[in-house]
Amino acid sequence: MAAISPDRMTFLEHLDELRVRLMHSLGALVVGTIVCWGFHERIFHFLTQPLRNAYPAVKFITTGPTEAFMMYMKMSFFVGIFLVAPYILYQVWAFIAPGLYAHEKAYAVPFIVAGSLFFLLGGGFGHYILFPTTFKFLYEFAGDDMQFLPKVDEYFEFYSWFLLGLGLVFQIPVVIFVLARIGIVTPGFLMRQFKFAVLVSFIVAAIVTPSADVVNQTLLALPMMGLYLLGVLVAWMFGRARRKPDGPTGLSSTT
Fold first, then answer.
1. pLDDT reading at 25 higher than 90
2. pLDDT at position 247 over 60
3. How far from 170 is each of 35, 120, 166, 201, CA to CA, in Å?
4. What angle do CA 238, 244, 249 make, to 5 degrees?
5. How many CB atoms are closer than 10 A to CB 212?
6. What DSSP character marks residue 243?
7. What count of other Cβ atoms lies within 10 Å of the Cβ of residue 149?
8. Which of 43, 84, 156, 224 could form an SS bridge with 32, CB 3.0 to 4.6 Å?
9. What is the spatial distance between Cα 137 and Cα 211, in angstroms, rounded to a whole number?
10. Rounded CA separation 29/255 (Å)
C-alpha cells in the first residue's frame, strides 16, 4: 500500500489555500484597476470604438448622475483583468499544483504564457473582428427614421461579458495542452469527439452572438472549432502517456 504523503492537504487546508489565492488575485485586480483609472478616458474611447465604426455619429447617453463615474470604474476594472491576467493564471496554477506530480509542475510557465496570450487573442478577436461585423449588420436595420442613442451601461455590459467569454473560449488549446502533457487526453480521443465539438461550438455561438443571423454565428463558431483542432495538434505534438512516479509529491512509495 502506498504511503500517504505528509504534505497531503486536508479539506480545510484546501479551502484556506483557495482563500489565499482569491485574495491575491483580488489584490492584483485592485492594483490593475488603479493603474487603468489613470487612462479611463482613453479606455472608454477604445472600448466603444467597435460601435463607433458602425455608427459614426453615435452618442452615448446616461440616465443617472453617477452613471458616468461608475462606468469609468467598471471599464478600468475590466481592462485591469486583462492587465493582470498572467498573475491570476499564476494563482490558478499555484492552487492546482499541489495535486500534480513533480514533473507536471514544470508546465507552469507554458500554462501562464500561453493562457495570457490566448486570453488577449480572444479579446482582440471580439474587439477587432466579431463586434465590427455584428454592429455593421445590425446598423442596416436602423435606417434614416431611427436615431440610435445607446445607454453606455447597456453597451458595456454586453461588450464586457462577451469579451470575457471569448477570452475563456480561447483557452481551449491551453487546457488541452495541460491535459495532454499530463496524459488525460490523447489526439485520437479528441478527434473522436470532434463532432460534439462542432455541435457545442454552434450552440454556444447561437447563445452568445447578439444577432440571430447565421453569418455572425458562424464567425464565432469557426474559431472555436479551429481552436479545438489546434488543441488536437498541440496534443499530438506535446502529449504523452501519464507517467506514474513514486508519489504525488515525488516521495517514494512503500508497498
1. yes
2. no
3. 26, 9, 6, 12
4. 100
5. 8
6. P
7. 9
8. 84
9. 8
10. 47
Q: For residues 99 and 105, what is the distance between their CA atoms, to the nearest angstrom?
A: 9
Which of 134-148, 163-177, 194-208, 215-229 has the weakest average pLDDT?
A: 134-148
- HSE, side-chain direction, 13 A CA sphere, residue 118: 25
Nearest CA-CA partner of 175 in 104, 234, 243, 109: 234
* Residue 186, C-alpha cell as written in the block: 490523447
CA dihedral (121, 127, 132, 133) in degrees, to 10, reads 30
Task: For residues 170 and 123, give the distance between their C-alpha atoms in angstroms, rounded to a whole number.
Answer: 9
Question: How crowded is residue 190: how many other Cβ atoms within 10 Å of its Cβ?
Answer: 22
What residue type is 191 in one-letter code?
M
Q: Which residues of 39-71 are buried (b: 16+ CB within 10 A; e: fewer)?
A: ebeebbeebbebbeebbeebebeeeeeeeeeeb
Domain ranges of the chain: 8-170, 171-242
CA gap 242, 245 in Å, rounded: 9
156-161 contacts at long range (C-beta below 8 A, 24 or more positions apart)? 156/47, 156/71, 156/74, 156/75, 156/78, 158/210, 159/47, 159/50, 159/131, 160/74, 160/78
d(CA 182, CA 174): 13
C-alpha cell, 29: 485586480
C-alpha cell at 85: 491576467
Cα–Cα distance between 242 and 244 in angstroms, integer?
7
